[in-house]
Design goal:
The chain contains two helices and no strands. By secondary structure, it is mainly α. The relative contact order is 0.15. It starts with 6 loop residues before the first helix and ends with a helix. The model has no long low-confidence stretch (mean pLDDT 93). It has one domain.
């Protein structure tokens, strides 16, 4: 994450990173952590 990022930019960066990481997970692992993933996205 770049250093001179504002709050909104940082929020968008983290959300995009979570989504990219989610796509890399196997379907069975996604099912195990789905609630936590959705909660993280809702928080952002």
């Amino acid at each position: 994450m770049p250093n001179q990022m504002g709050i909104d930019e940082g929020k968008m960066w983290v959300k995009a990173k979570l989504q990219r990481s989610w796509q890399k997970l196997r379907a069975d692992v996604q099912e195990l952590v789905k609630d936590r993933y959705e909660a993280a996205l809702k928080t952002l």
